[in-house]
Amino acid sequence: MVTQITRGIKISVSTSFEGTYFKNYKIHFAFTYEVTIENQSKDSVQLNSRHWEIYDSLNDIEVVDGEGVIGKKPVLKPGEKHTYSSGCLLASPFGAMRGYFNMINFTSTRTFRVIIPTFRLSAPFALN
């Protein structure tokens, strides 16, 4: 698990390798990740959007931007957590992801960026 705190917002990410399968005559490596967002600040905040950079050892970097996370824009009061799971497919057994969440502080009405630390995606059978 990797963890990082930005402006009182703690992001923790754990990953899992789910297996391989064929799609369009190519092998794909499936990974899931679970993200926990914990508000350790004194203000209520809301997650508005996300930005991901997905690194695959056999492909170019894929950039994904979108509203909220899994169709939600969670509001977190001080001390609250929000956890969600998602996944990605890679063409190789090795990769990584990193990014950020765009959030708004309800007290100051300012938007700010919360860093999602880089986390590795690796199939256990491919490690020596």
From TrEMBL:
GO biological process: error-free translesion synthesis
Domain (ApaG) ranges: 3-128
Pfam families: DUF525
Protein name as it appears in the record: Cobalt transporter
